[in-house]
Design a protein that fits this description.
Layout (H helix, E strand, L loop, with lengths): L34 E9 L2 E10 L3 H13 L8
Antiparallel strand pairs: 1-2
Length: 79
């Protein structure tokens, strides 16, 4: 089997809400592109991975959709 290398260029971190940090998903042009996104929670001064997702459209748009589904009780992160 042949091995392939994947090069990942991570951007961020970006805040979900504009009030939390100057770099938010809604104000960052990079977030309007397709890509991989990672939700983290800060615990003991380190960020722990909570959720990983991908989108072929827009990272910001996919995150807004996920937030909406979670707030409406239509989706949970953990089953």
């Amino acid at each position: 089997m042949e091995n392939e290398m994947l090069i990942v260029d991570l951007q961020g971190p970006y805040s979900a809400l504009p009030e939390e940090a100057p770099n938010s998903l809604l104000t960052t042009p990079d977030a309007r592109q397709a890509g991989l996104f990672i939700w983290t929670l800060e615990h003991n001064r380190a960020h722990r991975i909570h959720f990983v997702g991908t989108t072929a459209d827009s990272v910001a748009k996919e995150n807004l959709s996920l937030f909406s589904e979670i707030l409406l009780g239509e989706r949970t992160i953990y089953d």
